[in-house]
Fold these 3 entries.
Entry 1:
Amino acid sequence: MFRFLHPLRHPHIHGGHGHGPRGGGRGPKMFDAGAMRYVVLQLIAEKPRHGYEIIKELEQRSGGGYSPSPGAIYPLLSMLLDMGHVVASADGNKKLHTITPEGEAFLAENRQFVDAILARLTEGDEHREGLRTAMHELKHAAIEQARASNHNPARIEQIRAILRQAAEDINAL
């Protein structure tokens, strides 16, 4: 019914800002909008949430590997409101979304599917964590060496060349 997308298996699929693999986008899509509504509804079922909290929770649950854009989450929240699956109440200048009995029934009817989607979020965390650590180490080394160069243009260019070569090597995999 709905197609799952996984960033480690589908590197050619990118998120909603029109950026390619070298652009500054939010990263690859994890799953399509149809599947996303189940995840968002489940998060709201766990506790009432603001849109920003949903974005941050998805990012946290994916180990930082996935962060949906506000342009994906807020229209989805409006759709869930229109469907009667959530209600929104004013909370300062934000909206706090709470699940309705209809939303709870919808989740219960689709429990197996919802659980499969949520499992997808955390799949591969141990591999991504090692990769994330290595990327942070590389970033730290590049920054420290650039600072230590005392604005030496030749040294800065060496660092750039190493980073470009690493990117090319990774892209060639």
Entry 2:
Amino acid sequence: MEKIYMIPVNDAYMADCECPICFLKKKAENDYLDYYLGPSLMEPDTRKITNKTGFCPEHMGKLNKRETARLGLGLMLHTHLKDLSEDVTKDIKAAAPGKATLLKGRSSEYKSKLNAIADKIDKRVASCPICEKINYSLERYLEVIMYMFSKDSDFRARFAERKSHCLPHTAMLLRSAASNLSQNDVSDFINLLADNNAIQFSELIADVEWFTLKFDYRNNDKPWGNSKNAIQRSMRFLSADRSDFDEQQGKK
């Protein structure tokens, strides 16, 4: 019997997508983007978090693209900037060597202060609650995938039918299998995963090669086949499902 926590995983493995984990990640990301631009942005607990963390550059850009919620983004940025300014501005000023120290001669003490405030700024700029929530969600989804593979024969068959998973998520599946599957199940799981990814490698290698050969004038009149978007598909396979690849070239 299908449990509620299995539904997103089954949906991902039945979807017409290049990588089911990318599919799950994208859905989780969209849900969290909506969450932080929705009513939650006026909740004190949420604002305490966003004041301290802000968002990573990637998710800041994606929040900005949701033009219907610009006011919410502005409210969050206003209080985040105030918090950040209060936290680092004085430290930056204090890191400058004092005149009295300069008169005493050269000292390297100021260098450690500069590096410390730089590390502090890096840590704050890199923090992102959306990234943290996505990573947590993916860890739970991977556990569900392992459970379903070991307990649900229909899902195991569905997993076997997948063409591949992108390489970053293949690595995640390998680690999750090591932690969550029995030795017998690991043997079946890894063989299926390896076979499916081998097919994807073979197809991409052939398609990328034909893409390059199409630039030879002797092949002008020959059909593109599946190679026209081989570059974008290869980038997604190597680097996970990246929306910037799709926006630049159009997902084929």
Entry 3:
Amino acid sequence: MKRYLVTGGAGFVGSHLVDYLLSRGHTVRVLDNFSTGKRERIPNGVEIVEADIRDQKAIASAFVGVDGVFHLAALPSVQVSLEHPEETHAVNVTGTVNVLLASRDARVPRIVYAASCAAYGDQATLPCHEGMTPHPNTPYALQKYIGEQYVQLFSTCYGLQTVALRFFNIYGPQLPFHGAYASVIGIFLKQQSSGQALTITGDGKQTRDFVYVEDIVRALLAAMESPHVGTGEVINIGSGVETSVNAVADLFGGQREYIAPRVELRAIRANIDRANTLLGWSPEISFADGMQRTMEWFARAMPSQRP
């Protein structure tokens, strides 16, 4: 069994990954500053290093003695990056460089980086495949793409084994449903529970590739363990299915309110052939099943949740 470090381990995806790693018999250390993550998501007995990835000296010790690093810590919001590009750059770019430096200096065998499909921008054809030229159109998209470039560079220049997984639109239990980091599904859950109309930006025909969080964590461990990667490969992790925002709203029912459009991707869908070839991975949870599980979780969790 291995000892792994999860940066952002108290976050939405990070906490699921921690639970999954523990269930597989691994030992886990979490690095988090708890700016968006929640301490109560981390099981008892898991070692916690409370530090900010922007502070290279403060995080260095967390990387000593681990067999791999899952780098999930980020400020993952297009809107926040538009409003605060300097702060999000410091976390998403400088923080990633600090994580890579700490991994190099501690001689960590491999690091798996959480990249983003936002790097694609709007493409002329779908599905998006890893050979396409990225067209990031927001600070967040650019920052995550720069992170990919650094991940590849550290493999080339320093011999650090690295992999970058381009996550598409993640959903599932524990997803954010209020504040700046809420996803469309999280927002709809909160609005429906409050008896409000579902707010839809633009015409609602924009599409997303929704992938369930349990499928994401399986991909993360597959990337850590696969003998076929380690030289900075970029790999899509999505469902390969396009779903419009209007179609998501149809699952919820009720009233809708269409509001002004904002800067966002018009359409996106993943080609996941590379994930299947290099990682032996493919999604297992359909959108219908995943949404049922997410709604059931929200119904249980809502009485105890506070904005």
